[in-house]
TrEMBL record:
Pfam families from the UniProt entry: MerR_1 (PF13411)
PROSITE patterns (alphabetical): HTH_MERR_1, HTH_MERR_2
Organism listed in the record: Litorimonas taeanensis
GO MF annotation list: 2 iron, 2 sulfur cluster binding; DNA binding; DNA-binding transcription factor activity
The protein's name: MerR family transcriptional regulator
Gene3D superfamilies (UniProt xref): 1.10.1660.10
UniProt xrefs under PANTHER family: REDOX-CYCLING DRUG-SENSING TRANSCRIPTIONAL ACTIVATOR SOXR, REDOX-SENSITIVE TRANSCRIPTIONAL ACTIVATOR SOXR
Segments forming domain HTH merR-type: 10-75
GO BP terms, alphabetized: response to oxidative stress
InterPro entries xrefs: DNA-bd_dom_put_sf, MerR-type_HTH_dom, MerR_fam, Redox-sen_tscrpt-act_SoxR
């Protein structure tokens, strides 16, 4: 039987985090946070859950999927909220990912002016870059850009 506990009701957590109640429930179902129940059966959260939700919001704004965020949160001992030391470690991982995305976007930006990557939207120039449709051997979509 689950322990009945005191805590912060879901509506107050939503108010404090700016996240909709439905999103908080979704985060719970996805295993990103865990709610307890009070004597009335209502979801209750700890103050640390507000910080945990804030971490989720920040990571999402950085472009990380909930799957990646969950992996990072699951790596923490006892399912706790990231500490400053944890955040430094996570931010190194996130930083490397962001750097890779920046490189990919810069490369894509350079290629956009000359070719749409053989999907093919540049029929006049495509014969120069993709003679006999050789790019299809690499798979579907804009192969030269990706």
């Amino acid at each position: 039987m689950e322990k009945v506990k005191k805590g912060i009701l879901i509506g107050k957590v939503a108010e404090r985090t700016g996240v909709a109640v439905s999103a908080i429930r979704f985060y719970e179902e996805a295993g990103l946070i865990q709610a307890g129940r009070n004597s009335g059966g209502q979801r209750v959260f700890e103050a640390a859950d507000i910080r945990r939700i804030s971490f989720i919001i920040i990571a999402q704004k950085l472009g990380f999927s909930l799957k990646v965020i969950k992996t990072e949160l699951d790596s923490l001992p006892n399912g706790r909220t990231p500490t400053l030391k944890d955040w430094e470690k996570i931010s190194q991982s996130f930083g490397a990912n962001i750097d890779k995305r920046i490189e990919d976007l810069a490369r894509l930006k350079q290629k956009l002016t000359g070719c749409m990557g053989c999907g093919c939207l540049s029929l006049q120039h495509c014969a120069l870059y993709n003679t006999d449709d050789k790019a299809r051997e690499n798979g579907p979509g804009p192969q030269f850009l990706l």
